[in-house]
Amino acid sequence: MRLNEIEKSMLAGEMGEPRRQALEHQQKVGRFFDAPDMVEIAQAHIMADTEALGAANVEYLEKVAAYPEEDRHVAIPTITDPRGADLKQYKIIRQDEAFIDLERRTIAAFEALGVMMTDTCINYQLFMPPVQGQNLAFGDTGVCIYSNSVLGARSNYEGGPSALAAALTGRTPRYGFHLDEHRRGTTLFEIQDQPQNLTDWGALGGIIGREMRSYFEVPVVDGIEKAPTSDALKHFGAALASFGSTPLFHMIGITPEAPDLKSVFDSAPPQPIGIKQTSIEKFYDDYGAHDDRLDLVVFAAPQLSLVELQSLAEMLDGQKVNTDTSLLVCTAPAFKAEADRMGFTEKITGSGALLLEGVCFYQMHAREMGLANKWQRLMTNSAKLTNIISGYGYEPVLGNMEACVTSAIAGRIAR
Amino acid sequence: MNRRIIYGHVGIGPTVSGTALVASDNFSARYDLDRIEGVFSRPTHKLFGENYLNKVLVLNIAKGGVASAWMLYEMVTRKMAPISLLLNYANPIMAQGAAHANLPMIDRFDGDITTMIKTGEKVTVEPKTGKIFVE
Prior knowledge:
The complex is a heterodimer of chains A (415) and B (135).
Chain A: H1 5-11, H2 17-32, E1 38-40, E2 44-46, H3 50-65, H4 69-72, E3 78-80, H5 97-113, E4 137-138, H6 141-149, H7 160-169, E5 171-173, E6 187-191, H8 198-211, E7 219-222, H9 230-244, E8 250-251, H10 261-264, E9 273-275, H11 277-286, E10 296-304, H12 306-316, E11 326-331, H13 333-342, H14 344-349, E12 354-357, H15 366-373, E13 377-380, H16 383-389, E14 395-398, H17 401-410
Parallel strand pairs in A: 2-3, 2-4, 6-7, 6-9, 7-8, 10-11, 10-13, 11-12, 13-14
Antiparallel strand pairs in A: 1-5
Helix pairs in contact in A: 2-7, 3-5, 6-9, 8-9, 8-11, 9-16
Chain B: E1 4-7, E2 16-22, H1 29-32, E3 33-34, E4 39-40, E5 56-61, H2 68-77, E6 84-89, H3 92-101, E7 105-106, H4 113-116, E8 122-126, E9 131-134
Parallel strand pairs in B: 2-5, 5-6, 6-7
Antiparallel strand pairs in B: 1-9, 2-8, 3-4, 8-9
Helix pairs in contact in B: 2-3
């Protein structure tokens, strides 16, 4: 892999030990993917919840944070994915103090590096929205797929160690979705019935994600009749990325690199795979339940936008969540502040629901939290969450926001 | 005894030897594992309930989210990890995690790796050359 003079200087340790280690890590990854060189990036976004980190990685971060400031400070604007605990409310949901200690240590380490603690997986709806053609190092699969597909930016999945390395060096190996040749369509899906709500969009993403056979497969979606909302594409992309490990899709007539089919395929488009309403209904059925028992309703994964919080507030206004059921809502700190100001928080929490900021449910030591609160049957409007959470011992049930709210109030699954 | 050699892309990490645990299924450390107990915990995974500690784990493709990049290092540090990962196709997250953890990993073989190695076979993984030696 070719290095320029600045990169050679970093590798020689002339710009500090953290940057030397970071570039060495990036070389290993770059060689694995046959990257020809490095590319400068505009932003980094780091996923580093404490469940993923564990004590070992927290110690690793603290070692980096102990270097002199000129050696450790990030080189480009760098922000964070959701954290593992809402430090104002963690006791209500019985999160272990040992995890909270890790959380505080992690935050201190990141702050010492100059990382901005945005704690969000919907940064594209909040801060410095990526620009078409911009090279980035984004962690969180949902952030990456939205930025690549809807905004036309360029990022691979950058897991925490690599996003941190990119933040320190200001660059990343040029492979995968930084390259034009990997951004061409490979598979075609024809949408024959339009999704009706955000959960349908998530289900559609899940259906397509299940068909993906590798990270480098790029699905092309045709047949969408009108421009979806940002939240619709958020749920679609998050589910597609989760089920498929897919960082880029094209939607004909909607996303910037796909004005028409001939723009995204190098030759004749492949035979399309049709997706009908029955496919979406089958997807819901895959996350059904054999009885109506319900422990927990979760709105998260991705964090809720201000529009989603408003919808939820209107549904919960004047209602009471059943005493046998818990209702958790996760959003970004910036949207929580707006929800406070606009009165949405009062309506949501007035129902007995818990509105958590800066976290996402599955990133909060979900297994231990489930055991502590006796949560097993979980209903959500997030297709992404249904894909993740069964490995933590939960029984996920998928329903749209209205069905989830109705169920939370009834204390049993109502669909 | 016949010794087979399987060729893949040049990988990451040091040479190791161990016993294979194989399935035609995909892999995510967050979605699929109980990392405290060291077993596969996703009920629908073909290795559900299987212990993966110190095994050469042979699976189809990397799936799911970005957490595995941190998790592999954490698992290796606690000595609660597979000894190596062999995948038909890794994604960047697995490569980044293997690099961070110094966990041997190879992908892109000259066939479907999940059919070329059987559970219980003794294998040597040589990432520097991309070769797998099956005893």
